[in-house]
Amino acid sequence: MKIIDNVLSDSLLSECNDELRSNFIKNTWISSWFAWPKDVRMGVSGNCLISHVSSELSDKVKDEINNYFSNQNYGMVFQVFQPYSGLSSHTDTNYGFSATIYLNDFWDAEWGGWFIWSDKNTEEYRAFLPKENTMILSTDYEKHLVTPVSPHCGQFRCTIQIRGK
Predict the structure, then answer these.
(1) Could you read off the pLDDT of 102-134 as tens digits, one per residue?
(2) What pLDDT score does 91 carry?
(3) Under a CB-based contact definition with an 8 Å cutoff, are residues 101 and 91 in contact?
(4) Whole-angstrom Cα distance, residue 125 to residue 133?
(5) In angstroms, rounded to a whole number, what is the distance separating the alpha carbons of residues 157 and 165?
(6) Fewer beta carbons under 10 A from the terminal one: N or C of the chain?
C-alpha cells in the first residue's frame, strides 16, 4: 500500500465534497448490499451508499492523480459509509489497482472506519485512520478491510473509490 498525502488541490477537494453533498438529495445511490460481492459484506451488518462521480469531476480528478497510475483506464465512485458499514477482508484481485481518496475533513479514531491491510513484505497488519485528502493506493493485491463505522460517529465516512483494470 502506498499512502499519498494532499493528493488533490484544495479547490478540487472542495469541488469533490460539493458534488458529494449535492448527490445526497438526488436519487443516485445504490446500496453496497446490491453492488458488492457477498464475501466483501460477510460479517458487516451496515450498508455503504455508492454513487457515480460525474464525468466532469472524474476528468478533473484524473488530471491531478494520473501520475500515480500506469493504467489510464479506471473509474471512480463516491462511497458513503453509514453506521455499522465496513468491508470484510479481501484482495481486489479482479482489478489492476484500487485507490481510496478520503474526503472527511476530520475523522475520530473512536468512530471506527479504520483501513487495515496486511503488509505484503512482513504479513503484519497495519492500520490507517482516514485523513482528509489522503489517497491509499493498492497495486499488489494486499489483503485489506474497513472496520465497521460506529453508530455514535459524528458523520458519515466519505471517500472516492477508484478502480482500474
Answers:
(1) 999 999 999 999 999 998 888 899 999 999 999
(2) 86
(3) no
(4) 23
(5) 26
(6) C
DSSP one-letter string for the chain: -EEESS-S-HHHHHHHHHHHHHHTTSS--EEHHHHS-HHHHTT--S-EEEEEPPHHHHHHHHHHHGGG-S---EEEEEEEE-TT--EEEE--TTSSEEEEEE--S---GGGB--EEEE-TTT--EEEE---TT-EEEE-S---EEEPPBPTT-SS-EEEEEEEE-
Higher pLDDT, 102 or 95: 102
Residue 119 · residue 161 · CB < 8 Å: no
Q: What is the structure's pLDDT at 164?
A: 85
